[in-house]
Design brief:
The chain starts with a helix and ends in a 24-residue tail after the last strand. The chain has four helices and twelve strands.
Length: about 300
C-alpha cells in the first residue's frame, strides 16, 4: 500500500502544471546579433559621420536603427541626453574598425569649453547602427587631463602597420586579457614591448620620451577583477579595444586600448569614469599622490 501511495503521489506531481513564471519584458532595443554583417568601408563612413555629428551635437546623419540602444558610461541614455547631443570642439579624433565583429571605436579629445576625452563604440549590423556606447571622462575623473591626453596622442603613431608587424587577433585578445588579469594575478604573461607608453586619463608613463620605457611601470598592487570585457580588433592598425568594468564594479566603466607592433604592446590608452586624482598638463601628477597604490 505504501508503494502504491508513493507512486500515485509522484504521478500526481508529474501531471501538475509547472509553476507559472512571469516572462521578462521584451527589450525595447535592437538585439545584438551573434554574427553581424558589415564592410570596412561602411564602418569608416559611419565613424566619419559620428565625428562630424559630435561637432554639430546631433547623430541624425548616422544610419540609426529604429531601436538603437544608447549608453553613456554604461547607463541607458537617449539621442538627446548623451554628450553626442552637445556640440563639441573636437581637437583630435581617431577611429578603429572591426569588420569581423562589426564594431567601431572612436576616441575624441575636447580641450575647449568643458574638456572631455570620449571613447565611443558603434555597433553595426546590415548597414544600421544598433548601439551607441560612450565612455566619457571629464574633470574629477581618474587622472584626467585633456590637454595632456591631446599632447601625447598627437605625438604617437597610429598609422596602419606593415604585414610583418601585425599580430594575430587571438594573440591580441590573449595579451589584452593577460594585462587586465594582471590586476588580480601578478604572474600573467603580459606582452610588454619597448619602448611603450601608457596614457591613463592624462597621466603619461613616458613624459621624457625614453627609448627604453616600458608600460610595465606603474601597474598597481592589490587585487582587482576586471569584468564584462567586450572586444574590438582593428587588424590593420594592430589595435584591440576592450570595454569593461574596472574592479567588477557597476559604477566603474573602463576602456583600454592597446596598440601592438610585432606582437608587443607599444601604446596603451585608458579611460576610467571614476573619481580620482588629476594629472597635470605635462602628463605628470602631484608627487603627494600615488595613483598606482593598491586600489580598493
Amino acid at each position: 500500500m505504501m508503494k502504491k501511495a508513493l507512486l500515485a503521489g509522484l504521478m500526481a506531481c508529474a501531471a501538475a502544471p509547472a509553476l507559472a513564471q512571469t516572462p521578462a519584458p521584451p527589450s525595447p532595443y535592437a538585439p545584438l546579433p551573434d554574427k553581424p554583417t558589415c564592410t570596412r568601408a561602411e564602418l569608416k563612413a559611419i565613424t566619419a559621420a559620428y565625428v562630424d555629428g559630435q561637432k554639430k551635437g546631433s547623430l541624425a546623419a548616422l544610419p540609426l536603427d529604429a531601436k538603437v540602444h544608447y549608453l553613456e558610461n554604461m547607463k541607458d541614455a537617449t539621442a538627446t541626453t548623451g554628450l553626442w547631443a552637445k556640440p563639441l570642439a573636437v581637437a583630435n579624433s581617431m577611429s578603429f574598425h572591426d569588420d569581423t565583429r562589426c564594431k567601431t571605436f572612436t576616441e575624441i579629445i575636447v580641450t575647449q569649453g568643458t574638456p572631455y576625452v570620449i571613447g565611443t563604440r558603434l555597433y553595426v549590423d546590415k548597414g544600421k547602427v544598433i548601439r551607441v556606447d560612450s565612455i566619457a571622462i571629464k574633470k574629477g575623473d581618474w587622472l584626467f587631463n585633456a590637454n595632456a591626453y591631446l599632447k601625447f596622442t598627437k605625438a604617437e603613431n597610429w598609422e596602419p602597420l606593415f604585414k610583418y608587424q601585425k599580430t594575430s587577433p587571438a594573440e591580441m585578445i590573449r595579451g589584452a586579457n593577460a594585462y587586465l588579469d594582471g590586476f588580480s594575478d601578478k604572474f600573467t604573461d603580459i606582452p610588454w614591448g619597448t619602448p611603450c607608453t601608457r596614457t591613463e586619463g592624462g597621466l603619461n608613463t613616458n613624459v621624457k620620451n625614453d627609448p627604453n620605457a616600458s608600460c610595465e611601470l606603474g601597474m598597481p598592487g592589490g587585487i582587482l577583477y576586471i569584468t564584462h570585457r567586450d572586444y574590438l580588433i582593428d587588424e590593420e592598425k594592430g589595435v584591440i579595444n576592450v570595454f569593461c568594468r574596472f574592479g567588477g564594479r557597476v559604477e566603474s566603466p573602463d576602456s583600454h586600448t592597446f596598440r601592438y607592433i610585432d606582437g608587443k604592446f607599444r601604446i596603451i590608452h585608458t579611460l576610467t569614469a571614476i573619481p580620482g586624482p588629476q594629472a597635470k598638463d605635462d602628463g605628470t601628477i602631484d608627487n603627494a599622490t600615488d595613483p598606482n597604490a593598491p586600489r580598493t
